[in-house]
Write a sequence for this structure.
């Protein structure tokens, strides 16, 4: 690498961006929006983001494979198929000893210690006690049927339902548990808890700031890099650079230095306008480097494969839409491992944690995953860029 050639290539990139009025205007609008958000919004959380239609998935978690759990697994109705997920409590995702769930996901935990009461814990998404209504209705109906089968096998019958409404099905079983001694029914003693999931309510400002920071990186490292590189190819400038004393490695290095720096500077301005203290957090800069590196690899891959500026624009926007649909589809279908292969899955998590100052051990894992995926994208982009015909 020759420093004077790299300096000339970087100066060329800077001059071309100053001449690109649309890109400059969009960057200034992004900064202005961040400044207004930081200046006009209050410091505390501005509210919570609600869900439409309650929880979309519910885990049934158990400490042991009992007849009750087996009955529940056999009697999931068609309308809840794929939305009710069974797993042992030992296999649940935990951070610092606490089980964590994705947004819009609740849980019904069943613990049946030998000789003790059956403890049923219902964990509903915070702020919406009715979010698990359809899952709870199914659970308590099938639980009563399981207990009725057990009673019949013992030669006894359950007492009639107490006079509760259909939306209070869980009270029916609780009442049966209390009537056990008097009625002689084979209903185990029940201990029922209903609690909202812990964790901070989503801050709208933090969510918007995270999106703006991620967009700043994507705008510079994917959109601008791909479209302007293909514009150079269309005008013959890329071929002229290839015929100049600059080597292909130096051409790629200049772009790899310029675009992440541009996107990182824009992202830092946005983040600093939201919370100035984040600029002193090393985790924030590591997050920018990991996410920016991943987007750089994506942008260079698009630039290597696209032949025209229009194709580069469509490729950049198509990639963003395809990944968004993939992540949304996997979340709706309960697919857990495929999203881990996308930088866009880990990036918003680490950026949000850095912006809110709530970094945990789990977020360091997401940071390492984002860095690994970024390295993979950069290797692919470098391989393609060396072999493309300019």
């Amino acid at each position: 690498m020759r420093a004077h050639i790299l300096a000339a290539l970087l100066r060329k990139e800077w001059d071309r961006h100053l001449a690109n009025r649309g890109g400059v205007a969009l960057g200034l609008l992004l900064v202005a929006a961040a400044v207004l958000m930081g200046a006009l919004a209050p410091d505390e959380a501005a509210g919570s983001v609600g869900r439409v239609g309650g929880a979309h998935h519910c885990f049934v978690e158990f400490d042991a494979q009992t007849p009750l759990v087996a009955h529940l697994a056999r009697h999931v109705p068609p309308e809840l198929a794929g939305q009710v997920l069974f797993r042992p409590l030992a296999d649940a995702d935990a951070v610092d000893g606490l089980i964590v769930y994705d947004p819009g996901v609740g849980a019904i935990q069943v613990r049946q210690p030998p000789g003790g009461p059956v403890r049923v814990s219902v964990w509903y998404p915070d702020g919406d006690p009715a979010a698990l209504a359809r899952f709870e209705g199914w659970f308590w109906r099938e639980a009563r049927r399981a207990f009725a089968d057990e009673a019949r096998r013992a030669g006894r019958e359950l007492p009639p339902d107490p006079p509760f409404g259909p939306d209070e099905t869980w009270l029916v079983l609780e009442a049966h548990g209390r009537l056990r001694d008097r009625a002689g029914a084979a209903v185990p003693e029940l201990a029922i808890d209903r609690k909202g999931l812990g964790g901070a309510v989503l801050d709208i400002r933090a969510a918007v700031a995270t999106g703006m920071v991620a967009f700043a990186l994507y705008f510079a490292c994917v959109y601008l890099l791909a479209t302007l590189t293909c514009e150079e190819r269309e005008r013959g400038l890329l071929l002229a650079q290839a015929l100049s004393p600059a080597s292909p490695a130096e051409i790629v290095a200049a772009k790899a230095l310029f675009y992440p720096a541009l996107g990182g500077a824009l992202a830092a301005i946005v983040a600093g306008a939201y919370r100035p203290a984040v600029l002193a957090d090393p985790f924030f800069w590591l997050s920018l480097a990991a996410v920016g590196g991943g987007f750089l690899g994506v942008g260079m891959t698009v630039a290597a494969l696209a032949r025209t500026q229009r194709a580069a624009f469509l490729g950049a926007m198509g990639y963003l839409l395809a990944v968004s649909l993939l992540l949304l589809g996997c979340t709706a279908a309960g697919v857990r491992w495929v999203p881990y292969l996308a930088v866009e899955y880990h990036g918003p998590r680490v950026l949000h944690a850095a912006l809110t100052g709530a970094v945990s051990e789990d977020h360091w894992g997401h940071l390492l995953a984002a860095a690994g995926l970024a390295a993979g994208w950069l290797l692919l982009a470098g391989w393609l860029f060396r072999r493309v015909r300019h």
Residues 57-196 form one domain.
